[in-house]
């Protein structure tokens, strides 16, 4: 089962990457059975916490989002995550030959690398059930660092390249990931200007 890889990547990543490489899962099945499921964790948790739990700012005044606003932002976040994983997977495949990766008949390795490397970020979404900005920022920072390490660790195994090239390949991919992140932030601002921004309410 694809979801079993989520636990394996935390406990024994090298063996799990080798298993992932041998699977050659079709990108569509990988997306449906893994990415669509795990990417939903953060938006669902964020909806519950911002619409029903709320968070305090300074003077302990409870702040919440309206249910409609929380739902809209959660759906947009979910879609942004799906597009981001796909874009990163495409970039991995696109740059593969440049860094000496072995050519595959099924273009699944790039999507697999992107999806499974993002596993810590997906799981960090549970932290959003406790909507405190500094706590959430710390959890997601740790998850992002571990995701970057997973990608660096998995590139030589899944893409079949030398360990020395993995550092350059991983650095290029992290740059792409940052561009994707900035693009989603800019996209959020643009969408907010069309009336889909957060609507706050006091709890």
Describe what you observe in this structure.
The protein is mainly α. The chain has helices spanning 4-11, 13-23, 27-38, 41-53, 67-96, 109-117, 119-123, 133-158, 163-196, and strands at residues 55-57, 61-65, 200-202. It has one domain (4-202). A three-stranded antiparallel β-sheet has the order 1-2-3. Helix 1 (4-11) runs antiparallel to helix 2 (13-23) and helix 8 (133-158) packs across helix 9 (163-196). The longest helix is centred in the last third of the chain and has 34 residues, at 163-196. The protein is elongated and about 55 Å long.
In short:
This protein has 9 helices and 3 strands; from the N terminus they run H-H-H-H-E-E-H-H-H-H-H-E.
Question: What are the salient characteristics of this protein?
Answer:
203 residues, mainly alpha, 9 helices, 5% strand, elongated, transmembrane helix, membrane, Yip1 domain-containing protein, Yip1_dom
Number of helices: 9
Reported for the largest beta sheet, the result is: 3 strands, antiparallel
SS class? mainly alpha
SSE pattern, N- to C-terminal: HHHHEEHHHHHE
The tally of beta strands, per DSSP, is 3
Provide the spatial order of strands within the biggest beta sheet: 1-2-3
Bin the strand percentage.
5-15%
Q: Name the shape in a single word.
A: elongated
Which secondary structure elements does this structure contain, and how are they paired or packed?
Layout: H1 4-11, H2 13-23, H3 27-38, H4 41-53, E1 55-57, E2 61-65, H5 67-96, H6 109-117, H7 119-123, H8 133-158, H9 163-196, E3 200-202
Antiparallel strand pairs: 1-2, 2-3
